[in-house]
Design brief:
Peroxisomal Thiolase, Chain A, domain 1, four-stranded mixed β-sheet, five-stranded mixed β-sheet, 2 domains
């Protein structure tokens, strides 16, 4: 019986590295020790000014297509998860479609912040199950360093830029997407948000810029931390229970790369060895919708993920959004 398979993965991060010490030298009132202890981030990648989200997404997508062994002309649907598209209109996915030279593919964006890649996989899952499309390209891409306030040491140290991708299809062999699960809570969405750019603050004017409305905001960070930990754990349990798998049977947890203390908390509470968390947080920071996709690709390419292993991908993001996926590789 045909089920949903992952034919290939790919990722890309910009070559320019900004370390914690670089931020200190640029005048930020912080230290490498302070950042690393509280977040786990040691450095992040920053895209050059002329590089857009679709540029990075295109490189990641092409790597996924190459691994899958298929050309872009065989892709029926392109879903780009992002909160930093090239333009509000057209969608970032449309720019990506053009750069891949895939005019036959339907393309659109998904806005679910750091949960975006799993949300996009969930949408792809539905289209594949009802056989509307046969091959779907799912991408998470962000240029987060352009929406942060570089004077706010509580948030600017967290973020980086990059893209990750996967090609999904119906098939009878290969890595299997067992399930995806998504949730949202708009009532508390104001606690982690990007206020500017929407109908509440357009057209952009001096007042909106002076108020910092076009910077990502985290309100009540301690509360967000607790909520994120709770939803990460719920998402892990949900995916495991849905597939009748004990959490102990999962070989790898590849989460949205949010904060090292969150995963230490989850490890202690759920009795999951930290060695089972595949983390890229220390070298890339938080890349929102792209982070778990990049981590998955790196885990596959460096040989950490092996045939037959179970992978749990819990995510949490602004909106509020959360969810997870279970994969048998």
């Amino acid at each position: 019986m045909e089920t949903i398979r992952i034919l290939g993965t790919g990722s890309y991060v910009p070559p320019h590295i900004v370390t914690n010490d670089d931020l200190v030298q640029q005048g930020l009132d912080t230290s490498d020790e302070w950042i690393a202890k509280r977040t786990g981030v040691r450095q992040r990648r920053v895209a050059e000014p002329e590089v857009t989200t679709s540029d990075m997404a295109c490189i990641a997508a092409q790597k996924a297509l190459d691994m899958a062994g298929i050309p872009a002309s065989q892709i029926d649907l392109i879903i780009l998860a992002t909160i930093t598209p090239d333009t509000s209109c057209p969608a970032g996915a449309n720019w990506l479609q053009a750069k891949l030279n895939a005019p036959q593919a339907v393309s659109f964006d998904v806005t679910a912040a750091c949960s975006g890649f799993v949300f996009a996989m969930n949408i792809a899952e539905q289209f594949l199950k009802n056989r509307t499309f046969r091959k779907v390209l799912v991408v998470g891409g962000e240029v987060m360093t352009r929406v942060v306030d570089w004077n706010d040491r509580g948030t600017c140290v967290l973020w980086g830029d990059g893209a990750g991708a996967a090609v999904l299809s119906l098939g009878e062999s290969g890595p299997e997407l067992l399930s995806t699960h998504i949730h949202s809570d708009g009532t508390n969405g104001q606690n982690l948000l990007l206020p500017g750019g929407g109908s509440r603050s357009t057209p952009i004017n001096h007042e909106s810029v002076e108020k910092g409305l076009h910077h990502l905001r985290m309100i009540e960070g301690n509360m967000i931390f607790r909520v994120a930990v709770r939803y990460f754990m719920e998402s892990i349990k949900e995916a495991a229970e849905h597939n009748r798998i004990a959490v102990e049977q999962v070989d790898w947890f590849i989460p949205h790369q949010a904060n090292i203390r969150m995963f230490q908390n989850i490890s202690q509470t759920m009795n999951i060895p930290m060695e089972k968390f595949y983390l890229t947080l220390h070298k890339y920071g938080n890349i929102s919708a792209a982070s778990c996709a990049i981590a998955l690709d790196e885990a596959v390419r460096d040989g950490s993920v092996r045939d037959g292993q179970l992978i749990s991908m819990p995510v949490f993001g602004g909106g509020l959004t959360w969810g997870g996926a279970m994969i048998r590789w």
